[in-house]
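Summary for the steering committee. The consortium agreed at its last meeting that each partner would contribute one worked example illustrating the joint modelling workflow. Our contribution is presented below. We chose a case with several input lines so that the handling of multiple components could be demonstrated. No manual editing was applied between input and output; the record is shown as generated.
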Amino acid sequence: MSHNKNAAAVEEVLRSSGVDVRKCMRCGKCTATCPAFDEMEYHPHQFVYMVEKGQIDKLAASDSIYRCLSCFACMERCPRQVEPAKLIEAVRLHVIRAKGANHLKPEQIPAMLDEDLPQQAIASAFRKYSK
Amino acid sequence: MQRIGVFVCHCGTNIAATVDVKAVVEALSHEPGVVFATDYQYMCSESGQTLMREAIREHKLGGVVVCSCSPRMHEATFRKAAAKEGLNPYMVEIANIREQVSWIHKDIKEGTEKAIILGRAAIAKVHLNQPLQAGESPVTKRALVIGGGIAGIQTALDIAEAGFEVDIVEKEPTIGGKMAQIDKTFPTLDCAACILTPKMVDVAQHEKIKIFSYSEIESVKGFVGNFRVAIRRKARYVDEDKCTGCGICTEKCPQKKVPNEFNMGFDTRRAVYIPFAQAVPKVATIDANYCTMLKTGKCGVCAKFCGVGAIDYKQQDQIVEREYGAIVAATGFNPLKPTQYDELGYATCADVVTSLELERLMNAAGPTAGTLLRPSDKKHPHTIVFVQCVGSRCDAENEKGKPYCSKICCMYTAKHAMLIRDKYPDTEVYVFYIDVRTPGKNFDEFYRRAVEQYGVHYIKGQVGKVVEENGTLKVQASDLLSGEQLHIDADLVVLATAVEPDKSARGIATMLTASMDTNDFFTEAHAKLRPVESPTAGIFLSGVCQGPKDIPETVSQASAAAAKVIGLLAKDKLTCNPCVAQSDELLCNGCSSCERVCPYGAITYSDKEFRGPNRTTLIRRVASVNPAVCQGCGACTVACPSGAMDLKGFSNRQIMAEVDAICKM
Amino acid sequence: MKFSYYPGCTLKTKAKDLDAYMRASAEALGVELAELPEWQCCGAVYPMAKDEIATKLSAVRALMSARDLGTDLVTLCSACHNVIKQVNHDMKTDADIALRANNYIGAETPYMGETAVLHFLEVLRDRVGFDTLKAKVKNPLTGRKIGAYYGCLLLRPSKIMAMDDPENPTIIEDFIRAIGAEPVIYGMRNECCGGYVTLENKGEAERRSNIVLESAKAKGADTVVTACPLCLYNLKKNGGCDDVSVVYFTELLAEALGVK
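What follows is the complete predicted structure of the assembly.
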């Protein structure tokens, strides 16, 4: 993995997530339990496998990183304590921490509002999508 | 001063790669008393031993130090070689420079230094070694088998066939174990009961075998060849000798609502019951938790109907003391109860069952007489989903599951899938697997038959969620090869749950002083070379209590354990360990500290006459050790406040000499 | 029984009911809740990355002021509870995060996870006791069939949240029993409603919410209760199920105690 062109990104994602991708036994329970499966191009088990293979660029370019609901189901049910959700978050941070790479911008918000929308939704979306 | 020879082993590259063996020879050759030092590639080989024997002869060695592997591996080998040259075997010491040096260090300089230090310590000890003579102890020619499943049954039959007496202690009312609950067996699909029950009958009829059913081990004392075991015969409120097993009581008992554990709770039994038709012994048992007579004193129906007067409501637990030469642990397993995996719905959906529960639902003697009907509405399931590895292969930090592969699930699931497709071809069967593991004779062929001949859908992936809605189990799963998330409407979901050692095993291991691993499986004396023996002498292992196994493997291991037991019982006398404690009567102050800590009951106290000053005599109470019972654990030497108690071969002086040698540097 | 209380931003705006019904009920039950002074928004989602410090600070400040007041900290909104409890766990177990967060705040006494964080449901179960609650119920909701909607945030990750069995919880069901109604156990009660993704992708929130509601309806629930404003919004606004009403659990509590 060290001579991979993504080596630095892989290192960053592993460190920031604290995930040990080598623990994965490829059972696919994370993907089996994922409620956002239909919305994602890459699924939780692929995040684990592709980070291990060094394919951060593919993951970073995919909208999948914004589709994770952060429901922790994959983390809770993984028999190997791999915690794929943390990897997805780390790849997303890898992207949005770059200058001008925010996925959600304040000017978009008014169009998204309705009278019942709780503040909690906006606060969390900003946490997830912007730096 | 002793004339000492030092022999440094390379163990191929096992030692030589991390320890500079030549430097060790050179350094140790200058130690006091060392008259010969050499190294050799494999000291344990025939030529290595010859080299040692020649050196003993030529250099008139009085002591030998071998720097090699752990003494557990080859101490006996080298002692035997020395004895052939007339040297007392207890003049041989081992410095463990493999497990304690080369295998755990990477740096050659560090490793070499440590090897020299350990060699020095061993030399310092040999200087103080005394020739020891091993005594002998008799062997009680009877074996105890704890657990009456197929493992215990096979072990007991083999030992009995060799002409020795065997007792089986089984905590349930009947022998038979898990195999009695199973429908058919892989890979030949013969009926479990058809091959098990004849063996159960053989056990019952064998004149050398005695069954203590509904009984538990209360305590174990003694040592190899001479165990004394107390067995608790739990009150079954039925006189075993009088009961004919006619079953009239089990039909007349008015308490009909007791969950039937033999059928995994799918139906009920009476408070007085015989677990199944072929039970051995075929004797009724009253379940005190449910019997109205025992709980309220009002009923007595079974006693009224019993034609032979076997019912005895006043029966008490009985403790029986028996002596044995060898003990076999055959305590077996249970499938993990998957209540913690409720994303799979076991606790909340009636139609999510475990594989052992499915066995009962498919068994001709089960609650549905062999017709596969699902528990909730007693209808035929037409879509069945199997989930593999539930609770197996989990990360060590995962508190719910086990870190090991349970080994048998891939095969029994293939069996279930095949049997269902054979009997009910209109049923679709899906198996979600992580890996299909089928090593074993005719095993992979069996699994392929399920796929190719019977059209079972094997899907690489896992089930993530099972939800019951309007009588249908909505199964959400991953198909990793096609990259899809599947949604299957199933009628029945079967969980292949991990096997775990029976809960009683831990307590029994403690009584036997037999070691266990972190999963509560018994550990073997050597993982490869002594797989059916516990490290504790005289304790043997049979079946799943040592690790997950299928029936063929369990039976092989059960027979292997029996062979080891027979080898032991065939001896009239056992050579005792001469490294036993002894008390210096002049130093002993009679405080009894040693007696209290001795786990083997080897120490007794008596009044003895001693000569006092000026021709007087005085009576003092002093300890003495029975060398046939002492196992040399050394607990007494630590407890003794006056330094009177010492261990031969490991005396306080010897150990301090070793410590001094290590610290001298 | 005195506690510090962290309401969170939504409970001051769109989810005033959730808060008001709890305050009224707490009073009736003899639970004294003192709102933390100058609390800040917790951020609404737990920042999972190990190198996220600034985003955890508002939770740390809340925890720290509860500690300085010498009280346990009570939360009500599922999201706040999840964030604060997880950050508390970080401060207790991750020396690096604790060091950096404490350096950032520059408090006299570093915060090391000393505060106990309780969800109001846990206060009802473990401090008040469901039996005591039952005894104080004036208008038992007899005949109502109520499904507990846990969502994701109350239960997971279970090792840290430690509220209940994450796959087969009972705390809200026991609460429902205590107020005299019949709990309805349905499979999707601990699955996600779609959460904040509703902002970008209404369709997803709709699908998720309907799956939850259909599951509850199939088991015969007339009402679903939640502790989360976003769950309530998604289930009501994005899920279209006329047969099942969605309310905060505190509303039913207040109703049962006669303080609505």
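Residues 84-96 of chain A form the longest helix (13 residues). The two ends of chain A are 29 Å apart (CA to CA).
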